[in-house]
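Take a look at the protein record below and flag anything odd:
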Amino acid sequence: MSAAAAAGLAAPPLWPIRTKLLLCAALGFTLGVVATASLMTSSYATSSAALRGGGGALGLFLPPSATRNAVQDRPPPPAARSQPKQGAVPPARWQPKQEGAVPPVIRRARTSDPSPAAATGMGMPPPPAPPAAGITTSAAATPPPPPPALPGIGGQKPGPATPRVTTAVSGGNGSSSSSIGDDGDDEELMARAAAAPREVPAGTVPRVAFLFLTRWDLPMAPLWEKFFEGHRGLYNVYVHSDPAFNGSEPPETAAFYRRRIPSKEVQWGEISMVEAERRLLAHALVDDRSNARFVLLSESHVPLFDFPTVYSYLVNSTKVYLESYDQPGATGRGRYNRRMSPVVAPWQWRKGSQWFDLDRGLAADVVADRVYFPLFRRFCRRNCYADEHYLPTFLNIRRPSSAGANRSLTWVDWSHGGPHPARFTRMEVTVDFLRWLRDGSTCTYNGRTTSVCFLFARKFLPNSLTRFLRFAPKVMGFG
Protein backbone atom coordinates (compact mmCIF):
# COMPACT_ATOMS: atom_id res chain seq x y z
CA MET A 1 0.00 0.00 0.00
CA SER A 2 1.28 3.36 -0.89
CA ALA A 3 1.87 6.14 1.66
CA ALA A 4 -0.98 8.27 0.27
CA ALA A 5 -3.49 5.48 0.66
CA ALA A 6 -2.38 4.85 4.22
CA ALA A 7 -2.81 8.52 5.09
CA GLY A 8 -6.35 8.50 3.63
CA LEU A 9 -7.40 5.57 5.77
CA ALA A 10 -6.13 7.19 9.04
CA ALA A 11 -7.94 10.66 8.63
CA PRO A 12 -11.46 11.13 10.13
CA PRO A 13 -14.39 11.22 7.79
CA LEU A 14 -15.34 14.69 6.54
CA TRP A 15 -18.88 16.17 7.52
CA PRO A 16 -21.17 16.66 4.60
CA ILE A 17 -21.60 20.26 3.59
CA ARG A 18 -25.44 20.04 3.91
CA THR A 19 -25.21 19.07 7.60
CA LYS A 20 -22.94 22.00 8.38
CA LEU A 21 -25.29 24.43 6.75
CA LEU A 22 -28.27 23.11 8.77
CA LEU A 23 -26.37 23.48 12.07
CA CYS A 24 -25.40 27.06 11.26
CA ALA A 25 -29.01 27.97 10.40
CA ALA A 26 -30.38 26.50 13.66
CA LEU A 27 -27.80 28.34 15.73
CA GLY A 28 -28.58 31.61 14.01
CA PHE A 29 -32.34 31.17 14.53
CA THR A 30 -31.86 30.49 18.22
CA LEU A 31 -29.71 33.59 18.67
CA GLY A 32 -32.34 35.65 16.87
CA VAL A 33 -35.17 34.47 19.12
CA VAL A 34 -33.17 35.29 22.27
CA ALA A 35 -32.28 38.74 20.97
CA THR A 36 -35.90 39.48 20.01
CA ALA A 37 -37.21 38.47 23.47
CA SER A 38 -34.59 40.62 25.20
CA LEU A 39 -35.48 43.60 23.03
CA MET A 40 -39.22 43.26 23.74
CA THR A 41 -38.67 43.07 27.52
CA SER A 42 -36.48 46.15 27.49
CA SER A 43 -39.05 48.09 25.40
CA TYR A 44 -41.93 47.17 27.81
CA ALA A 45 -39.96 48.39 30.82
CA THR A 46 -39.06 51.62 29.05
CA SER A 47 -42.70 52.20 28.06
CA SER A 48 -43.96 51.62 31.60
CA ALA A 49 -41.42 54.04 33.00
CA ALA A 50 -42.46 56.60 30.46
CA LEU A 51 -46.12 56.20 31.35
CA ARG A 52 -45.42 56.56 35.05
CA GLY A 53 -43.10 59.49 34.58
CA GLY A 54 -45.15 61.26 31.94
CA GLY A 55 -42.32 61.28 29.39
CA GLY A 56 -39.01 59.48 29.33
CA ALA A 57 -37.75 57.80 26.24
CA LEU A 58 -41.25 57.67 24.78
CA GLY A 59 -41.93 61.34 25.45
CA LEU A 60 -41.18 62.13 21.82
CA PHE A 61 -44.03 59.89 20.65
CA LEU A 62 -46.52 60.04 23.61
CA PRO A 63 -47.41 63.55 24.85
CA PRO A 64 -47.77 64.18 28.64
CA SER A 65 -51.54 64.78 28.32
CA ALA A 66 -51.95 61.31 26.90
CA THR A 67 -50.04 59.79 29.81
CA ARG A 68 -52.23 61.69 32.34
CA ASN A 69 -55.37 60.53 30.58
CA ALA A 70 -54.11 56.97 30.58
CA VAL A 71 -53.54 57.11 34.36
CA GLN A 72 -56.84 58.85 35.10
CA ASP A 73 -58.83 56.36 33.04
CA ARG A 74 -57.71 53.55 35.25
CA PRO A 75 -60.42 52.54 37.77
CA PRO A 76 -59.40 53.07 41.42
CA PRO A 77 -58.74 50.02 43.52
CA PRO A 78 -61.63 48.79 45.71
CA ALA A 79 -60.02 50.10 48.89
CA ALA A 80 -59.68 53.60 47.45
CA ARG A 81 -63.31 53.65 46.31
CA SER A 82 -64.62 52.66 49.74
CA GLN A 83 -62.35 54.96 51.72
CA PRO A 84 -64.34 57.89 53.24
CA LYS A 85 -63.29 61.47 52.90
CA GLN A 86 -61.14 62.77 55.70
CA GLY A 87 -63.43 65.66 56.53
CA ALA A 88 -66.73 63.83 56.21
CA VAL A 89 -69.18 64.05 59.11
CA PRO A 90 -71.49 61.06 59.57
CA PRO A 91 -75.17 61.94 59.30
CA ALA A 92 -77.05 62.16 62.56
CA ARG A 93 -79.29 59.16 63.24
CA TRP A 94 -81.76 61.37 65.05
CA GLN A 95 -82.67 64.98 64.35
CA PRO A 96 -84.09 67.11 67.16
CA LYS A 97 -86.17 70.22 66.71
CA GLN A 98 -84.58 73.20 65.04
CA GLU A 99 -85.09 75.29 68.14
CA GLY A 100 -82.48 74.44 70.74
CA ALA A 101 -80.90 71.74 68.60
CA VAL A 102 -78.68 69.28 70.44
CA PRO A 103 -75.27 68.44 68.96
CA PRO A 104 -75.34 65.04 67.24
CA VAL A 105 -73.70 62.11 68.93
CA ILE A 106 -71.47 59.87 66.83
CA ARG A 107 -72.48 56.27 67.28
CA ARG A 108 -70.06 53.52 68.11
CA ALA A 109 -69.18 51.20 65.25
CA ARG A 110 -71.22 48.04 65.00
CA THR A 111 -69.60 44.66 65.54
CA SER A 112 -69.97 43.94 61.82
CA ASP A 113 -67.88 46.98 60.87
CA PRO A 114 -64.26 46.23 59.90
CA SER A 115 -61.82 46.54 62.75
CA PRO A 116 -58.82 48.90 62.48
CA ALA A 117 -56.57 45.96 61.73
CA ALA A 118 -58.88 44.66 59.03
CA ALA A 119 -59.23 48.12 57.54
CA THR A 120 -55.48 48.46 57.34
CA GLY A 121 -55.26 45.11 55.59
CA MET A 122 -57.79 46.29 53.05
CA GLY A 123 -55.61 49.25 52.17
CA MET A 124 -57.59 51.71 54.33
CA PRO A 125 -56.17 53.72 57.23
CA PRO A 126 -57.58 52.72 60.63
CA PRO A 127 -60.59 54.90 61.55
CA PRO A 128 -60.24 57.28 64.49
CA ALA A 129 -61.77 56.16 67.78
CA PRO A 130 -65.31 57.57 68.17
CA PRO A 131 -65.88 59.97 71.07
CA ALA A 132 -67.81 58.80 74.09
CA ALA A 133 -71.56 59.30 74.11
CA GLY A 134 -72.56 62.81 75.00
CA ILE A 135 -69.06 64.28 74.38
CA THR A 136 -68.83 66.78 71.58
CA THR A 137 -65.78 67.44 69.45
CA SER A 138 -63.41 70.31 70.07
CA ALA A 139 -64.21 73.85 69.09
CA ALA A 140 -61.56 73.73 66.38
CA ALA A 141 -63.48 71.08 64.50
CA THR A 142 -65.78 72.19 61.73
CA PRO A 143 -69.35 72.18 63.06
CA PRO A 144 -71.89 70.15 61.12
CA PRO A 145 -74.42 72.02 59.00
CA PRO A 146 -77.74 72.85 60.64
CA PRO A 147 -80.26 70.01 60.43
CA PRO A 148 -82.88 70.27 57.69
CA ALA A 149 -86.47 71.07 58.48
CA LEU A 150 -88.22 68.05 59.91
CA PRO A 151 -91.37 66.72 58.26
CA GLY A 152 -94.53 67.78 59.94
CA ILE A 153 -93.32 71.18 61.21
CA GLY A 154 -95.60 74.07 60.44
CA GLY A 155 -98.48 71.88 59.39
CA GLN A 156 -96.58 70.26 56.52
CA LYS A 157 -97.33 66.66 55.75
CA PRO A 158 -94.53 64.19 56.45
CA GLY A 159 -92.40 63.02 53.58
CA PRO A 160 -92.23 59.50 52.16
CA ALA A 161 -91.53 56.62 54.46
CA THR A 162 -87.90 55.73 55.15
CA PRO A 163 -86.32 52.56 56.50
CA ARG A 164 -85.89 54.26 59.86
CA VAL A 165 -88.44 54.07 62.62
CA THR A 166 -90.05 57.49 62.76
CA THR A 167 -92.14 58.92 65.52
CA ALA A 168 -94.19 61.98 64.84
CA VAL A 169 -94.70 63.93 68.02
CA SER A 170 -96.87 67.00 67.73
CA GLY A 171 -96.75 69.62 70.40
CA GLY A 172 -99.28 72.20 71.35
CA ASN A 173 -98.24 74.61 68.59
CA GLY A 174 -97.41 72.19 65.83
CA SER A 175 -95.66 68.94 65.24
CA SER A 176 -92.22 67.52 64.76
CA SER A 177 -90.69 64.21 63.84
CA SER A 178 -88.26 62.27 65.96
CA SER A 179 -86.47 59.32 64.42
CA ILE A 180 -83.83 56.92 65.59
CA GLY A 181 -82.23 53.95 63.93
CA ASP A 182 -84.34 51.04 62.83
CA ASP A 183 -82.80 49.01 65.67
CA GLY A 184 -84.30 51.41 68.22
CA ASP A 185 -80.96 52.20 69.81
CA ASP A 186 -81.78 53.43 73.33
CA GLU A 187 -78.17 54.32 74.02
CA GLU A 188 -78.10 57.00 71.36
CA LEU A 189 -81.48 58.32 72.44
CA MET A 190 -80.38 58.59 76.08
CA ALA A 191 -77.18 60.36 75.07
CA ARG A 192 -79.12 62.98 73.12
CA ALA A 193 -81.60 63.46 75.94
CA ALA A 194 -78.79 63.83 78.47
CA ALA A 195 -77.32 66.62 76.33
CA ALA A 196 -80.64 68.49 76.11
CA PRO A 197 -81.05 71.71 78.12
CA ARG A 198 -81.99 71.10 81.74
CA GLU A 199 -84.01 74.27 82.12
CA VAL A 200 -86.82 75.86 80.15
CA PRO A 201 -85.51 78.96 78.32
CA ALA A 202 -86.41 82.27 79.87
CA GLY A 203 -89.49 83.83 78.35
CA THR A 204 -90.81 80.48 77.11
CA VAL A 205 -94.22 79.25 78.18
CA PRO A 206 -93.62 75.97 80.05
CA ARG A 207 -95.44 72.86 78.92
CA VAL A 208 -96.48 69.66 80.64
CA ALA A 209 -95.43 66.37 79.02
CA PHE A 210 -98.05 63.66 79.52
CA LEU A 211 -96.31 60.28 79.20
CA PHE A 212 -98.69 57.39 78.58
CA LEU A 213 -97.25 53.92 79.24
CA THR A 214 -99.85 51.59 77.73
CA ARG A 215 -100.21 47.98 76.67
CA TRP A 216 -102.30 48.48 73.55
CA ASP A 217 -104.77 51.25 72.89
CA LEU A 218 -106.11 54.10 75.06
CA PRO A 219 -109.73 53.30 75.96
CA MET A 220 -109.99 56.55 77.95
CA ALA A 221 -108.76 58.66 75.03
CA PRO A 222 -112.17 60.36 74.47
CA LEU A 223 -112.11 61.63 78.06
CA TRP A 224 -108.55 62.88 77.70
CA GLU A 225 -109.47 64.61 74.44
CA LYS A 226 -112.11 66.57 76.37
CA PHE A 227 -109.48 67.33 79.01
CA PHE A 228 -106.93 68.69 76.50
CA GLU A 229 -109.46 70.54 74.35
CA GLY A 230 -108.73 74.25 73.96
CA HIS A 231 -105.28 74.19 75.59
CA ARG A 232 -102.86 73.60 72.74
CA GLY A 233 -99.47 75.11 73.38
CA LEU A 234 -99.47 74.12 77.05
CA TYR A 235 -98.90 70.37 76.74
CA ASN A 236 -97.28 67.56 74.77
CA VAL A 237 -98.40 63.94 74.62
CA TYR A 238 -96.16 60.86 74.23
CA VAL A 239 -97.46 57.29 74.04
CA HIS A 240 -95.40 54.13 74.56
CA SER A 241 -97.43 51.08 73.56
CA ASP A 242 -96.63 47.52 72.60
CA PRO A 243 -94.64 47.52 69.33
CA ALA A 244 -97.07 44.95 67.91
CA PHE A 245 -100.02 47.31 68.32
CA ASN A 246 -101.24 48.64 64.96
CA GLY A 247 -104.46 50.41 65.85
CA SER A 248 -105.94 53.08 63.66
CA GLU A 249 -104.61 56.62 63.89
CA PRO A 250 -106.93 59.22 65.46
CA PRO A 251 -107.95 62.31 63.48
CA GLU A 252 -105.40 65.05 62.90
CA THR A 253 -107.26 67.34 65.27
CA ALA A 254 -106.95 64.85 68.15
CA ALA A 255 -104.45 65.32 70.95
CA PHE A 256 -103.19 61.75 70.41
CA TYR A 257 -102.62 62.11 66.66
CA ARG A 258 -99.18 60.70 65.73
CA ARG A 259 -98.10 60.59 69.36
CA ARG A 260 -96.59 57.08 69.53
CA ILE A 261 -92.85 56.86 70.05
CA PRO A 262 -90.59 53.95 68.97
CA SER A 263 -91.40 51.33 71.61
CA LYS A 264 -90.22 47.95 72.82
CA GLU A 265 -91.98 45.10 74.54
CA VAL A 266 -92.63 45.63 78.25
CA GLN A 267 -93.07 42.86 80.81
CA TRP A 268 -94.91 43.57 84.05
CA GLY A 269 -92.60 43.74 87.06
CA GLU A 270 -89.44 43.58 84.91
CA ILE A 271 -86.73 46.13 84.26
CA SER A 272 -88.30 46.71 80.84
CA MET A 273 -90.89 48.90 82.56
CA VAL A 274 -88.15 51.25 83.77
CA GLU A 275 -86.60 51.19 80.29
CA ALA A 276 -89.95 52.29 78.84
CA GLU A 277 -90.24 55.11 81.38
CA ARG A 278 -86.74 56.35 80.52
CA ARG A 279 -87.58 56.09 76.83
CA LEU A 280 -90.62 58.30 77.30
CA LEU A 281 -88.62 60.84 79.32
CA ALA A 282 -85.85 60.91 76.71
CA HIS A 283 -88.21 61.57 73.81
CA ALA A 284 -89.98 64.33 75.72
CA LEU A 285 -86.68 65.99 76.65
CA VAL A 286 -85.33 65.97 73.10
CA ASP A 287 -88.57 66.81 71.33
CA ASP A 288 -89.41 70.08 73.08
CA ARG A 289 -87.17 72.10 75.36
CA SER A 290 -90.20 73.89 76.81
CA ASN A 291 -91.38 70.66 78.48
CA ALA A 292 -91.05 71.57 82.15
CA ARG A 293 -92.96 68.80 83.95
CA PHE A 294 -93.18 65.11 83.07
CA VAL A 295 -96.16 63.06 84.27
CA LEU A 296 -96.32 59.27 83.87
CA LEU A 297 -99.78 57.83 83.23
CA SER A 298 -101.35 54.54 82.10
CA GLU A 299 -104.26 53.56 79.86
CA SER A 300 -106.48 53.21 82.95
CA HIS A 301 -105.74 56.73 84.27
CA VAL A 302 -108.39 59.46 84.35
CA PRO A 303 -108.02 63.15 85.22
CA LEU A 304 -109.89 64.39 88.31
CA PHE A 305 -109.69 68.12 87.55
CA ASP A 306 -109.83 70.33 84.49
CA PHE A 307 -106.69 71.18 82.54
CA PRO A 308 -106.08 74.70 83.97
CA THR A 309 -106.11 73.32 87.52
CA VAL A 310 -103.73 70.47 86.67
CA TYR A 311 -101.42 72.71 84.65
CA SER A 312 -101.15 75.38 87.35
CA TYR A 313 -100.63 72.75 90.04
CA LEU A 314 -97.69 71.22 88.19
CA VAL A 315 -95.78 74.15 86.70
CA ASN A 316 -95.99 76.23 89.89
CA SER A 317 -94.96 73.46 92.27
CA THR A 318 -91.65 73.63 94.10
CA LYS A 319 -91.52 69.85 94.54
CA VAL A 320 -91.42 66.74 92.40
CA TYR A 321 -94.08 64.13 93.11
CA LEU A 322 -92.56 60.72 93.59
CA GLU A 323 -92.92 58.37 96.52
CA SER A 324 -89.61 57.45 98.16
CA TYR A 325 -89.79 55.77 101.53
CA ASP A 326 -88.07 53.08 103.56
CA GLN A 327 -90.28 50.04 104.09
CA PRO A 328 -89.18 47.15 106.31
CA GLY A 329 -90.19 43.63 105.43
CA ALA A 330 -90.10 41.38 102.41
CA THR A 331 -91.81 43.86 100.05
CA GLY A 332 -89.39 46.66 100.90
CA ARG A 333 -85.94 46.06 102.30
CA GLY A 334 -86.28 42.36 101.49
CA ARG A 335 -85.97 43.11 97.78
CA TYR A 336 -82.53 44.65 98.17
CA ASN A 337 -79.70 42.66 96.56
CA ARG A 338 -76.45 42.75 98.53
CA ARG A 339 -74.47 42.65 95.28
CA MET A 340 -75.55 46.27 94.70
CA SER A 341 -73.22 47.35 97.49
CA PRO A 342 -71.27 49.60 97.75
CA VAL A 343 -72.83 51.60 94.87
CA VAL A 344 -76.24 51.34 96.51
CA ALA A 345 -76.02 50.73 100.26
CA PRO A 346 -78.84 48.99 102.14
CA TRP A 347 -79.74 52.16 104.00
CA GLN A 348 -80.19 53.98 100.64
CA TRP A 349 -82.75 51.49 99.31
CA ARG A 350 -86.22 52.99 98.84
CA LYS A 351 -89.66 52.04 97.55
CA GLY A 352 -92.53 53.95 95.97
CA SER A 353 -95.21 54.08 93.30
CA GLN A 354 -94.03 54.17 89.72
CA TRP A 355 -96.47 56.97 88.79
CA PHE A 356 -94.45 60.15 89.04
CA ASP A 357 -94.24 63.82 88.18
CA LEU A 358 -90.68 65.07 87.58
CA ASP A 359 -89.22 68.44 86.73
CA ARG A 360 -86.90 68.87 83.76
CA GLY A 361 -83.69 68.72 85.76
CA LEU A 362 -84.52 65.43 87.45
CA ALA A 363 -85.80 63.94 84.21
CA ALA A 364 -82.46 64.76 82.58
CA ASP A 365 -80.62 63.17 85.51
CA VAL A 366 -82.62 59.97 85.06
CA VAL A 367 -81.85 59.54 81.35
CA ALA A 368 -78.19 60.46 81.94
CA ASP A 369 -77.80 57.84 84.68
CA ARG A 370 -74.95 55.48 83.81
CA VAL A 371 -74.31 54.29 87.37
CA TYR A 372 -77.47 53.14 89.11
CA PHE A 373 -79.65 52.02 86.21
CA PRO A 374 -77.13 49.44 84.91
CA LEU A 375 -76.88 48.14 88.47
CA PHE A 376 -80.67 47.73 88.73
CA ARG A 377 -80.81 46.10 85.31
CA ARG A 378 -78.28 43.54 86.45
CA PHE A 379 -79.36 42.78 90.00
CA CYS A 380 -83.02 43.88 90.39
CA ARG A 381 -84.77 40.88 88.82
CA ARG A 382 -87.53 38.37 89.45
CA ASN A 383 -89.32 39.51 92.63
CA CYS A 384 -87.47 42.82 92.87
CA TYR A 385 -89.93 44.93 90.79
CA ALA A 386 -87.54 47.61 89.57
CA ASP A 387 -90.34 50.06 88.70
CA GLU A 388 -91.11 50.37 92.44
CA HIS A 389 -87.50 50.85 93.54
CA TYR A 390 -85.28 52.39 90.87
CA LEU A 391 -86.64 55.95 90.81
CA PRO A 392 -87.32 56.12 94.59
CA THR A 393 -83.77 54.95 95.30
CA PHE A 394 -82.31 57.21 92.63
CA LEU A 395 -84.15 60.23 94.06
CA ASN A 396 -83.00 59.39 97.58
CA ILE A 397 -79.36 59.28 96.45
CA ARG A 398 -79.18 62.09 93.89
CA ARG A 399 -81.62 64.64 95.35
CA PRO A 400 -82.02 65.81 98.94
CA SER A 401 -85.16 64.72 100.74
CA SER A 402 -86.56 68.24 100.53
CA ALA A 403 -86.74 68.07 96.71
CA GLY A 404 -89.54 65.50 96.64
CA ALA A 405 -93.01 65.67 98.12
CA ASN A 406 -92.79 61.92 98.88
CA ARG A 407 -96.25 61.32 97.48
CA SER A 408 -97.85 60.48 94.17
CA LEU A 409 -100.43 62.54 92.31
CA THR A 410 -102.26 59.34 91.27
CA TRP A 411 -104.88 57.84 93.56
CA VAL A 412 -104.85 54.03 93.68
CA ASP A 413 -106.78 51.64 95.94
CA TRP A 414 -104.48 49.04 97.52
CA SER A 415 -106.89 48.13 100.32
CA HIS A 416 -107.69 44.76 98.80
CA GLY A 417 -104.09 43.56 99.07
CA GLY A 418 -102.19 41.58 96.48
CA PRO A 419 -99.77 42.64 93.73
CA HIS A 420 -102.38 44.65 91.80
CA PRO A 421 -104.64 47.52 92.92
CA ALA A 422 -108.42 47.42 92.80
CA ARG A 423 -110.20 47.93 89.48
CA PHE A 424 -113.36 49.97 89.09
CA THR A 425 -116.20 49.20 86.74
CA ARG A 426 -118.89 51.39 85.26
CA MET A 427 -121.38 51.09 88.13
CA GLU A 428 -118.77 52.14 90.70
CA VAL A 429 -118.21 55.51 89.04
CA THR A 430 -120.64 57.89 90.74
CA VAL A 431 -120.79 61.59 91.43
CA ASP A 432 -120.13 61.09 95.14
CA PHE A 433 -117.18 58.84 94.46
CA LEU A 434 -115.57 61.36 92.11
CA ARG A 435 -116.09 64.19 94.58
CA TRP A 436 -114.49 62.14 97.32
CA LEU A 437 -111.45 61.47 95.08
CA ARG A 438 -111.11 65.20 94.48
CA ASP A 439 -111.50 66.47 98.05
CA GLY A 440 -111.26 63.53 100.40
CA SER A 441 -107.59 63.90 101.35
CA THR A 442 -105.31 66.43 103.02
CA CYS A 443 -101.74 67.18 102.01
CA THR A 444 -99.19 69.96 101.68
CA TYR A 445 -98.64 71.98 98.51
CA ASN A 446 -95.85 74.57 98.45
CA GLY A 447 -95.90 74.74 102.24
CA ARG A 448 -99.67 75.09 102.59
CA THR A 449 -102.31 72.56 103.55
CA THR A 450 -104.75 71.69 100.78
CA SER A 451 -107.38 69.10 99.89
CA VAL A 452 -106.22 68.91 96.26
CA CYS A 453 -103.81 66.01 96.62
CA PHE A 454 -104.61 63.69 93.71
CA LEU A 455 -104.85 65.04 90.17
CA PHE A 456 -105.39 61.59 88.59
CA ALA A 457 -106.83 58.20 89.53
CA ARG A 458 -106.67 54.58 88.33
CA LYS A 459 -107.57 51.69 87.61
CA PHE A 460 -110.79 52.20 85.66
CA LEU A 461 -112.07 49.65 83.19
CA PRO A 462 -113.01 50.74 79.64
CA ASN A 463 -116.73 50.28 80.32
CA SER A 464 -116.59 53.18 82.80
CA LEU A 465 -115.83 55.68 80.03
CA THR A 466 -119.48 56.55 79.44
CA ARG A 467 -119.93 57.44 83.10
CA PHE A 468 -116.90 59.75 83.07
CA LEU A 469 -118.05 61.50 79.91
CA ARG A 470 -121.41 61.99 81.58
CA PHE A 471 -120.12 63.30 84.93
CA ALA A 472 -117.06 65.23 83.77
CA PRO A 473 -118.88 68.50 82.96
CA LYS A 474 -120.75 68.42 86.28
CA VAL A 475 -117.99 67.28 88.64
CA MET A 476 -114.62 67.89 87.00
CA GLY A 477 -115.37 71.06 85.09
CA PHE A 478 -114.60 70.01 81.51
CA GLY A 479 -116.32 68.25 78.63
Remarks:
- The mean pLDDT is 74.
- The two ends are 156 Å apart (CA to CA).
